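Justification of resources, computational component.

The compute hours requested in this renewal are based largely on the per-chain cost of generating structure records like the one below. Each record pairs the submitted sequence with a full structure-token output. That output is archived, and it is also reused by downstream analysis tasks.
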Amino acid sequence: MTNELPAIRLRDFAAPDVDAVLALWRRADAVARPTDRPDALLKRLAHGDDLFVVATADDQIVGSLIGGWDGWRGGLYRLAVDPSVRRRGVGTLLVREVEARLRRAGAERVPIRVFFGEPGAVTFWESVGYRPDRDEAIFVKDL
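The structure output for this chain reads:
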């Protein structure tokens, strides 16, 4: 990518995007998760909603964000922005888009998981209005 940022377009994730999104996550040094696999992304796609959004520049995927909605709360997962276009508003565009979709679905609260091992993550999420919830802790069990 050049210094001049091509027009950013947001669209729904689609099956042909699987390899490009996984490659983006690697380029972005996202903390690896057990579900970073093609079959897991296709399973997410089969869920049938429009909450998995990708950002493109010159038809290349340069950002992604997965939203979730369980009828009670929204969630944001796996925000990744290509290092070549960081600090140019791509992450903020993705967050605002998925928040709007969650709001339309009825979400009133959006908890997120922020990995302390991802440089800049805490600062970014605070910059778009999120804050640590001192009353909750995340517990996890791999199945």
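Residues 15 and 42 are 6 Å apart (CA to CA). The chain has a mean pLDDT of 89.
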